[in-house]
Amino acid sequence: MTSPIETVLGHEFVRPELLREALTHRSALQNRGSHERHSNERLEFIGDRVLGLIMAEWLAERFPDEPEGDLGRRLAWLVSQPVLVTVAETIGLANALSVSPGEARAGVKARATVLADALEAALGALYLDGGLDIARRFVRNAWNEAMTEQVEPRKDAKSALQEWALQRGPDLPVYTVTERSGPPHAPLFSIRVSVGAESGAGSAGSKRAAEQAAADDLLRRVTR
């Protein structure tokens, strides 16, 4: 019987254990033997690469005359944390996530990093179970709105924030690492960016991505 999340993903899994792994947050493995289950970190690693390939292919097809720089800016936006979170929320991914009771009470399912990582892990599971065509079909359906709303190549969040700061006054963005957690193979960086009295925060698996997330958070605060 097809599960609700399989219906959303558009694929009935031959190996359902892959989907279970993709939807397992590392907190759900606390106090369990490491042999019983794995968290979604490895599948997130695969899904990130699959998403990049599918998006690059789609962009080259959709914008055949654009230079590499413009395609790169479009790609950076489409695979950014804000877009991933929007897609995850749209398909109701949080409802399928397995987390520890304590983390569930703390609202971990609503965290941007958790949703973005789980979506990439689900994509990795789709790819491993059904192949590239199945993964491509899901991405083109789930990201269609984000793709079609891009009339012009988007500036990345850090560049856009830099421009906003220069127009506003003498203060330029200052990025500070506030926390580094997670294992060496799957680190999590938390970064705060400040422009004068205004600030934003973001977290991701690399400093670069965390800075982009923080810049995007600050831009949303000052432009809404």
Q: Mind explaining what this structure looks like?
A:
- The protein has a three-stranded antiparallel sheet, covered by helices on one side.
- The protein is globular and about 60 Å long.
- It has two domains: 4-148, Ribonuclease iii, N-terminal Endonuclease Domain, Chain A (Orthogonal Bundle); 157-223, Double Stranded RNA Binding Domain (2-Layer Sandwich).
- The longest helix is centred in the first third of the chain and has 22 residues, at 41-62.
- It has helices spanning 4-9, 16-22, 41-62, 68-78, 81-90, 101-105, 112-130, 132-142, 144-148, 157-168, 207-223; strands at residues 174-181, 188-195, 198-204.
- The mean pLDDT is 88.
- The protein has 224 residues and is mostly helical.
- Strand 2 and strand 3 (198-204) form a beta hairpin.
Topology:
Layout: H1 4-9, H2 16-22, H3 41-62, H4 68-78, H5 81-90, H6 101-105, H7 112-130, H8 132-142, H9 144-148, H10 157-168, E1 174-181, E2 188-195, E3 198-204, H11 207-223
Antiparallel strand pairs: 1-2, 2-3
Helix pairs in contact: 2-7, 3-4, 3-7, 3-8, 5-7, 7-8, 10-11
Poorly predicted runs are none
Number of strand segments = 3
Number of domains: 2
Mean pLDDT: 88
Give the spatial strand order of the biggest sheet: 1-2-3
Radius of gyration, rounded? 18 Å
**The CATH C-level class name of the largest domain:** Mainly Alpha
Count of helical stretches? 11
CATH homologous superfamily of the largest domain - what is it? Answer: Ribonuclease III domain
What general outline do the C-alpha atoms trace?
A: globular
Distance between the termini: 44 Å
Can you tell me the CATH architecture of the largest domain? Orthogonal Bundle
Class computed from helices, strands and strand pairing:
mainly alpha
Q: Secondary-structure element sequence? A: HHHHHHHHHHEEEH
